[in-house]
Amino acid sequence: MLDHLTIIEPTVTEKSMKEQKNGKYTFYVGNNTNKIEIAKAIKRLYGVEVKNINIVKLPTKSKISRKGKNIKRKERKKAIISIDKKQNIDFTKIKEIK
Question: Which stretches in the chain have pLDDT values below 50?
Answer without folding.
Answer: none
